[in-house]
């Protein structure tokens, strides 16, 4: 198992994402994933990452101001050019950081129509063709409606159907076990059946989104072993909110028999 720190959720003891690169390295991580670093230049982020001597696995698509609930325009008709600009900006950052994966966020919508689904699929088809030239993997993630009400993509079957129709090696599923449990449950079966489409995995306990060994619905010792049995051997993002200090909360890694 290879674990990477999610800088949007971990090491928030520091308000600056730039400082979190060094904090992640200090805690023993070899790699991180992050949201798009709004407010920081490509040069600033690249320097922070390189000074920390840490790998960047994944970066989220530029979405707008997440504090205002802006989570992308991929499914919004009439904003195709904005989507393309956001993709281009994100690719620039991904290149500079050496990130091989981009999470293409769908956006939040009040009302969903067939036009939204058509726009979403067309934009993903465009992204897959662009990312193929960049040798970068695009991933899409169903997000549960409890955590992010009105998020456009909250259905794993619909996500897989789109991935199958586009049929590109550069578009896969981001499988967040936290969201899978909220949306579907039946984890052993669903993980096994979704695995052929998976390009990235994230974890957090349900319902409080804390460390895997905190009280909750998921037996992560079993689930991590199950992921391995199902053939997953890539990075796993720790997209959880530490119950206390981020570094101290990592004791579960050793407890479960792994290392960072």
UniProtKB/TrEMBL annotation:
The active site is at 141 (proton donor/acceptor), 239 (proton donor/acceptor). It catalyses: 3-hydroxypyruvate = 2-hydroxy-3-oxopropanoate. Residues 22-255 form the Xylose isomerase-like TIM barrel domain. Coiled coil: none annotated. The keyword Cell division does not apply. It is an enzyme of class 5 (isomerase). Keywords: Isomerase. Transmembrane segments: none annotated. Belongs to the hyi family. Catalyzes the reversible isomerization between hydroxypyruvate and 2-hydroxy-3-oxopropanoate (also termed tartronate semialdehyde). This is Putative hydroxypyruvate isomerase.
């Amino acid at each position: 198992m290879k674990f990477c720190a999610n800088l949007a959720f971990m090491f928030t003891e520091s308000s600056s994402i730039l400082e979190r690169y060094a904090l992640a390295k200090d805690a023993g991580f070899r790699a991180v994933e992050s949201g798009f670093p709004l407010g920081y230049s490509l040069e600033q982020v690249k320097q922070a990452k390189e000074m920390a001597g840490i790998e960047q696995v994944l970066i989220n698509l530029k979405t707008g101001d997440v504090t205002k609930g802006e989570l992308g325009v991929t499914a919004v008709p009439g904003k195709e050019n904005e989507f393309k600009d956001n993709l281009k900006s994100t690719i620039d950052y991904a290149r500079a950081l050496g990130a091989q994966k981009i999470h293409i966020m769908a956006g939040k919508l009040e009302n969903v129509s067939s036009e939204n689904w058509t726009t979403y699929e067309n934009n993903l088809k465009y992204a897959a063709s662009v990312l193929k030239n960049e040798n970068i993997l695009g991933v899409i993630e169903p997000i549960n409606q409890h955590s992010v009400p009105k998020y456009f993509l909250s259905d794993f079957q619909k996500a897989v159907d789109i991935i199958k129709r586009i049929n590109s090696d550069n578009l896969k599923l981001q499988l967040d076990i936290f969201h899978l449990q909220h949306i579907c449950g039946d984890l052993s079966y669903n993980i096994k059946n979704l695995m052929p489409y998976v390009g990235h995995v994230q974890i957090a306990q349900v319902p409080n989104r804390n460390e895997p060994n905190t009280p909750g619905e998921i037996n992560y010792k079993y689930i991590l072993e199950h992921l391995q049995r199902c053939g997953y051997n890539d990075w796993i993002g720790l997209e959880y909110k530490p119950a206390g200090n981020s570094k101290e909360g990592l004791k579960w890694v050793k407890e479960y028999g792994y290392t960072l």
